[in-house]
Structure formats: structure tokens, C-alpha cells
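Notes from the 1:1 (GR / supervisor)

We went over the backlog. Supervisor wanted to see one worked example end to end before approving the batch request, so GR pasted a single chain during the call. The sequence is below; no edits were made to it. Supervisor asked that the structure be written out right there so they could see what the output format looks like.
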Amino acid sequence: MNYKRIAVAVSLACSGLLQVASAAPIEQTSMIADAGLINEQQILYWMVKRGELSATATDAEKRTALAAYTAKAKSFPTREHHALKNSMKQKLKTRANRQRVNGSVFSDSNDVEKTVKVLAVLVDFPDLPYNDNRLTASDSAMFYDNYPVAHYEKLLFSPSGFDGPQKQNLKSANQYFSAVSGDTFSFTGEVKGWVTAKEDAAFYGGNDADKNDDDKAVPDLVKEAVIAVVADMSEAELNSYDVEDPGDLNNNGITDEPDGIIDHIMLFHSSVGEEAGGGVLGDDAIWSHRFFVQPQDLGFEIPGKNKKIFGYTVQPIDAAAGVCAHEFGHDLGLPDEYDTRAGASDVGSPVGLWSIMSGGSWAGAIPGAEPTGFSPYARSYLQARYEGNWINEQVVNQESIKNKDLDVELFSAVNSEQTNQLSIPLPPLQVQFKTPYAGDYQYYSGEGDQMINSMSFDVTLPSSTSLTLMMKAHWNIEVDYDYVQVLINDTAIVGNHTKIANPQNSAAHIITGDSTDIPESEGAHNWVDLEYDLTSFADSTVTVKIVYITDEFEGEYGFVADNIKVLDGSKVVYQDDAEEVNDIVLKDFKRVGASIEGKPMRYIVQLRSYQGVDSSLKIDSYEPGVLVWLENMNQTDNNVSEHEGQSLIGVIDADQSLIGTRGTSTQVRDATFSKFDQSAFAGDTELSANSTFSDTDNYISPKQPQGGMFLRNLGISLEVIEQAEDSSTTTVRLTRTVEDENNPEQIAAYFSSEINNLK
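Structure output shown during the call:
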């Protein structure tokens, strides 16, 4: 996946001459159009109104037109999602160590409150003033005669909601975040504007044919607009928008302090968003998204203000709370949960309206005015990052349900006072890796971000004129940003395949790139002979260390070594073929065979109802009940068009009977396990209740596998034994049936190593 990169100056302490890999800068080739906000109905409406599509177009013609129009849409891996994920993992691990068996997670931090302050900026264009936007009541469900500053202040920050187009009370973004965080996250700020851009709308929002038809110059618009609204701000007022250091840029461990960057910028422009048809501008409109200004410089410094503009979100004139909260979810570090690579024939990831980071951003009688809650993956992330009361989770350990029943009471996901999420961590999965060069074992660096993994051993070198360290190795390492060094007494030394210098940081004598590119590499895994001259260390005892260092962002599988030797001429002074456990010191390197331990996986159980932020599930014909999710950290996204049945997070659909050929968003409407029959739904012929989940059953949805889920056959089952009529409470019975004690995982044959995308 060709993710764009964002530079975040996060340094890691390291002793001696070692330097942590510097973060790779973003390849700012294009803007990012957020596919999660696509409104197909409105796109077709505007195409017909502008005369680009016949009012009598066939369904096939409509699908073709939509596919062409939405081809630019994709996802963006946010700065926070990458730069913070390791610290989030550490927080989760630390708190997990404090919890009791089957106890509540995060109960010690539920009283922690967080307040963010947003700078919201309204900008229009010389050819499209906000008060002459050429919209009519039929053009948008969020149409108003006027869009003053006061409208956006209420839309974003009101504690009591705001008047909708029909004078109905609609919830604000502030109310949404307060509800989903259990009243521990305050979404505050001010709205500035309207200001007028220097150029017409097409200058900023026109499609760039050289860059996937992405918007041409939205960061320039952000700069213009912010410069205009802060021009008359006092230093104290501007400083009030910079109170966070999410990347810990000064490496002092404190994130609640200024970092010289405006924390949160939300831009509103004077057109319908391109994701909803673009209004009168068509494809010259801006597509709502989250992105960055001059990321290669970690932002743009505002002239005369000593503050930078960096991250921003952009929304349309007729935005509802859903698009605002979805994009701000990216600001908080969350990834998209829809299939960002889906084509016209793909059906989508198994999330749908169950999460605001997927289709839930468009939920409600007015599309987007009543967004649904976050997925359990997102809630867990937000809890780890901000503490507070995003979840009250009970962890169910394997031993507590092994060949016995455990009844657990669960409350609705919107109930922040009681247990509202169950987590069932799954046993580690051994997945196929690489075969050793010889024998049964080898040494492996591991894979991941912000790592300093090492292995070391001491060796006494004789007095000699020909001392050589040799090993067999293969690797795939992100070029220059991640690397391996061999050190003698903490000093990097030259080898036959090392680079003298690294253009991205001060690390010298590194191994990086792919051993496949070395002509003399051998075998299926491209083993290479590495040699290092140790003669200058003769007649001494030295520490030999192999270290693998990675930056904050994407990488490859890392480095593998086997048959390590130190030779005095042809005489072996030291040898380690990894076949036996010895005195070698492994610090996150591992001695492995042809398989390795997969990344964490868990089932997550929620009770969804028609209460609170989930009230719109009823409007959109989603069924209340017990929702079982699979979180699979072996996947980095929900692009099921590329890996069917395997996603970072997705629901396990209780009803495997398809509703015609409709997309996954419709298919998962009845994904809940329940004691009650489903409500009638057009095209759905199977409405019977299903109250029992078992991972020995098949949930792959063979006729629409992109919407299915591969499960491990672990013998884990869940039965809904009690359920309130309004699904506000339930009692579920959890069991794990283990028939073969010598093979407790009972892994199904169809669950292959491909789920891990390991090379």
C-alpha cells in the first residue's frame, strides 16, 4: 500500500552512537478525498441537475457515472494514527497489567477529562459568495436561507443542539463527542469568518489530472483563510489554540503543552462538497477530507505570528454533525473503516452504519445529522489516548471460559456508567514465515514501528591479522528510514553490503532496502552472505550487536540472520546456528523457526440499541442486539477488496442470508445476535432470530466474501440468554469448548498465513 507519509519529529532516546531512524516525510503528491463521505444519491441528483446525466438514466448508467465520479476517493492514514499508535499500545498494555482477571479495563481513568479547542474558519470564493451560494431547498437536506457564523457555532459547539431546516432540534458535534466519551471529552472552539479567498473556487477545488483528479490547492486555501482570521488576534488568543503536543515534539513525555502548531483547524467552504455532488461547482468543488499543510516542514509558519498551520479538516457549507465528527475522528488519529480501495463492483467492508468511521457518518433522517457511535476498535483507541470514559470494558480471559460457561451482563454501548464492551483476546496464532537457511531455527528482528530491537553476544578475539564476522541474512527494510547496523562495542562497522551514509539521518554503515536486489542473493528468501572485518579488534573481548531500528511509519518484514560465525582465517572462533538456546542476548529479536507468532486478535462484543447516538440505527433499519466484532491487528485496514474476509475491524454477520445483491452496508443491517425476530425489510426473506454465535460456524458469506469474516475455529461460542425488549441490557453466556488439549487452537484449514500479509 502506497501510504503517504507525514513527518513528525519524535525522537527516541538511545545510548552510544545509535540514532533512531528519522521519520520519513510525506510524499505530498495529492490531496486525499475521503471516500467514507460519499453520498451517491446526491451525486446523481447534481449530475442530473447539471445536465451531466439523463433523468431517465438506467441503473447501469448510474453505476457507471458514479464509478467515474468517485474514482478519486480514498483514505488517509492520519499523522496521529501512525505517530501515536505505539504509545497507545504501551498504554493499553500497562493498564491491562493492572486489571483483575475478567475485570474492568480503564476504571482507574474514567474521571480523566479532555478539552480540545477548535479554530473553525469559514471561507467563500469571489465566484461563490456564501450569501449567494445558488442553492435551493431541494438541493440539500441541510439547506438554510443563510449560513451565518452563528449557524456553525451551534452546529459545532452548542451544548443543547441547534435548529434544523424544519426547526427540528439537531445535535451538535459537541453533543456527539460528549455522548460517546461519557461526558469526558469537551469539543470547544470558536468560528471565524466569513473570509473570501483570493481566487475563484476552481483554483483550489478543481481536479488535477496529474494527481488522480484530486483537488488542486486546498492547503493554499487553508493558509489564506487562517492567515486572514488570525491577523487581528492577540498573542494570548492565538496561543489558546495551541495547548497540545500530540507528537511530543520536544521528547519530554508531555503532550498537554504547546508545540507551536495550531491544534485543530476546521475549514468550511461555500459549496456543497464534491463528495455529495459538488453543487453548482461540480468537480471544481472541494471534497471533504483531512490533510496537512506543508508536511515536509511540519507545517507552514504564519508570518509574524510564531505559530504554524499543519493539520486541518475541510467540510462543506451544508455540513451536518456526521461529516464534522467523522473528519475530526481522523484529527484524533482514527483510520477509516470502509474499504478505501473498493471499485464499482466491490461491496464494501463489514462495518456499514455500525461505526461513524464508516457509513455511520451519514446516518439519520437528515443524512449525516445523527451519526452513530464509534466502533470498538476506535473506542479502545480513544480510551487509550485520552483516558476518560469512552468505554467500560470487561476482559474475558480464555481460562475463564475453557470448557465451562461464563454468564456476563452487558449494557447498551451508549451506557457509559456500566459495562458496555466485552473483549475476548484470542490465543496467539502461529503463522507461516520464512524457513531457516539451515536447521530448524533462525534469528528474526521482528516488524513494526519505532523499534530498537537488538541481539548481542560477547566474543574473545585472538591476536590475528584475519578476523571476520560472517552470517547468512535476508531482509526487506524500508529504504534509509529503517535500517540494520552491526556494532562492535556500540560502534557501527563497515560490512560488504552496508551503506556508508544515510541521507535521512546520521546513521552510518547501514543495511537497508531489499536483499532481493543483491545479484548474488540465493534461494527463495534471497539469502546473502554478510561479512565484517574484525581485525582491528584483535586480541580483545568485544560485544557484537545487531540492531534493527525503524521510524514511526510503514515498513517491511525486517531482518533475518542464521549461521553466525567469527573466523580467524578458516578457524571458527565463535559459532551460533540458532539451533540451541545459548547465552546470546535477545532484546526483541527472537529465535524462531519457520513460523512466528501473529499479532493480537480479539472478539469484541457490544450491545447496540436505539438509544442515544445509536437512535438513528432504527431510521436506517439496522437491527438492535448483540454485535460481535473481530479485531485483527494482522491487518492494517479494511480493504476487503484486496483481502476478502480479513479486515482490521469488522462485524460478524449473524444473518448469513443475503439481501439480494446489495452492498455490505445493507447486508450487515441484521448482523446482531438477538432473541427477537427482525423487523420487515424490503428484499429480506430471512427475519428469524439468531441468538447464538460460534466460531466453529462459517461466517465467510461465500456469495459475497468481501462482507464475510474468516474466523479461527477455536470453539468459542456466545449465547444471548437474556435481552431487554429495548436492548438496553443483555446477559450473554460465553464458552470455549476445547476437545483436544494437545491442539487447543483447532485452527481451521481455511485460516491461512495470508491473513498476516507476511512475505
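Supervisor's comment: The CA atoms of residues 290 and 735 lie 43 Å apart.
Batch request approved.
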